[in-house]
Structure formats: structure tokens, C-alpha cells
Design goal:
11 helices, 2 domains, 2 strands, mainly alpha
């Protein structure tokens, strides 16, 4: 009798797991995350472009592609311009939600995503502030949107303001000019809460 009850439990558990697996496969978001992960983990331009074709042309796919292309080809000005053009302009908009969570796990409620797909996306997300700083050094004409995004980027896990130091030091004149183009209110907030442009000193630091 005990063996029979045990057997029924095993069958029930197997049925439940099979159902979860089918559910995750049926959820579009669960299929999309691995495609995005393939773009994030690409090691060559050819592999990157191939993965991008399968990932599509959504905002998230374009962001991951641009950032990864710049990492693979650090002197690619087109990739730099593309990444900077994707900077969110509204902290409550859908674009900022993507910057804060590249995997966007809420699209896969069942959680049927392997760690091997999540890891490259989380790592790329962590590198985005550094990649954006590299991008603006290649495309300094985008300095104003780069500086403007600092106020939107503030969160305990982002080192965006820390990465600004290298930009401020390398392109100091253009950096100062961009800060001066901010509205009086935004400029006051920037120089007192985020970054000191005169001394290229970070004020806002992420939590350790």
C-alpha cells in the first residue's frame, strides 16, 4: 500500500513538472528570454548578428545588440550612437524598465528559464553604465542625453555616476557644456546629488 501511495506521488509530481514545462514553452516571454540571452553571450560580430536575427527588433533586442556589439568592437561608432540613442527619457517609461531588468522575468510567470540564459543578461545589465560611458567617448555629440540620463539612472545597484568620472576627465569641456544645458532645476539636482562636474567627483554611489 505504501509503495502504491509513493508511486502515485511520483506520478503526480511528474505530471506537475511536465505541466510547468509545457506552460513555460507556451509562454512567449519564456521563449524570448533565451533568444535575448544568445545575443548577450555572443563572442563575435557574426554570431551576434545571427543571434539578433532570431531575437527580432524590439527595443530590448536593439539595446542588448548595441551594447554587446560595442563590447565586441570597442571602436564601433555606429554601435555607440545606437546605444546612446536608446537611453530612456522617462524614469517611468517602458524603456527604463528594460534598462533596469534586461531579462524581464515578468514575461515568464512560470519561471521556466535556465540560469545559463539569465546569467549573460544580468551580466550585461551590470555592464551597461560602463558601456554607455565608452559609447559617449566615441560619440561626444551625444553628451547631453548621456548627462541627462544620470538623473533617471539613479538606483542602488547602478554605478552610472561612478562611470561618469572617466567621461568627465576625458571630455571635460563637453561634459561641462552638457551640464550647463540642463534646466536650472535639473542642473542643481545633478551637481548637488549626483556628480560634481568641476572636480569630476561622484556624489551618488551604488550600495555595496
Amino acid at each position: 500500500m505504501k509503495a502504491l501511495r509513493f508511486s502515485k506521488k511520483v506520478i503526480t509530481a511528474a505530471t506537475f513538472l511536465a505541466f510547468c514545462a509545457r506552460a513555460s514553452v507556451q509562454e512567449p516571454g519564456c521563449l524570448e528570454i533565451p533568444r535575448m540571452a544568445a545575443v548577450a553571450r555572443a563572442k563575435s560580430v557574426a554570431a551576434l548578428k545571427s543571434a539578433k536575427q532570431k531575437a527580432g527588433n524590439s527595443y530590448r533586442a536593439e539595446l542588448i545588440f548595441s551594447a554587446r556589439l560595442l563590447e565586441i568592437d570597442p571602436q564601433n561608432k555606429a554601435a555607440a550612437n545606437s546605444l546612446l540613442s536608446l537611453l530612456p527619457k522617462d524614469e517611468l517609461g517602458p524603456e527604463q524598465a528594460v534598462w533596469l531588468s534586461l531579462p524581464q522575468l515578468e514575461q515568464c510567470p512560470s519561471g521556466g528559464v535556465p540560469e545559463s540564459d539569465l546569467t549573460p543578461l544580468f551580466r550585461l545589465q551590470y555592464r551597461l553604465p560602463r558601456d554607455t560611458a565608452k559609447a559617449v567617448l566615441l560619440a561626444p555629440d551625444k553628451m547631453l542625453p548621456y548627462v541627462s540620463y544620470a538623473q533617471i539612472s539613479l538606483n542602488p545597484e547602478s554605478d552610472y555616476a561612478v562611470q561618469m568620472r572617466k567621461v568627465c576627465r576625458a571630455r571635460h569641456k563637453q561634459f561641462i557644456e552638457a551640464v550647463n544645458e540642463l534646466s536650472p532645476k535639473d542642473k542643481a539636482w545633478f551637481i548637488t546629488k549626483i556628480f560634481d562636474p568641476d572636480g569630476c567627483r561622484t556624489i551618488f554611489f551604488p550600495e555595496q
